[in-house]
Amino acid sequence: MFWLNGMAGTGKSTISRTIARLRPKQGHLGASFFFKRGEMDRGNLAKFVPTLARQLASSVPGVAPLIKNAIDSDPAIIGKAVREQFDKLIREPLSKAFEATTSLSSLFIVIDALDECERDADIRLLINILSHTKILRPRLRVFLTSRPELPIRLGFSEVEGTYQDLVLHEMPAQIVEHDISAFLADEFRKIRDSFNLTVADERKLPPDWPGQQTMQDLTRMAVPLFVFAAT
């Protein structure tokens, strides 16, 4: 499990969305869940396991029948405790799928904004549950993002040795500046290319648009908040 944590605006969700967007193209994304406080079932664990199970059934070869078997064996599993749901619908099916084939080199589960989960007890429970996925390493990798809030820090303090972490707001300024500059350059390239597809040659934007000075100014204004560049 890898915990990416940082203060608001440091780019956590941008990174997790990028991973969730790129990994399916590489065949490595198993499932993702983006917490959002106040948005029905995205603010708690009620649909966390069913959501992951549904995505895993669609994205991982051989997992769908294993999940179906688990549900057939216990039709009431969806209404049971989250830990039992996770064991029966996620951990055990993945373990069996990994044993049955070597073609699954690595599989990612992306969990974004755990701090948006509304109940402190749910946060600590989920961290504890995820810490037990270490038995499936290195083939299963959990990528989790959050702000460094107290319930989350306490949750991770209880599972020492089961995760790695990176604190975004403690990154050296020059690295943050480089990353924001690279992000802006890529976004402006997309804008330029999309615009140039819709206009005549004489109206097309030049390859260096919007210009080095503009890029430097925008980068300087954004540092250290990645959210400034992303919005």
TrEMBL record:
Keywords recorded for this protein, A-Z: Repeat
Which Pfam families would you find in this protein's record? NPHP3_N
Q: Where is the NACHT domain?
A: 1-148
Which stretches are annotated as coiled coil? none
Which Gene3D superfamilies does the UniProt record give?
A: P-loop containing nucleotide triphosphate hydrolases
Protein's name according to its UniProt entry:
NACHT domain-containing protein
InterPro entries referenced in this protein's UniProt entry, alphabetically? NACHT_NTPase, NPHP3-like_N, P-loop_NTPase
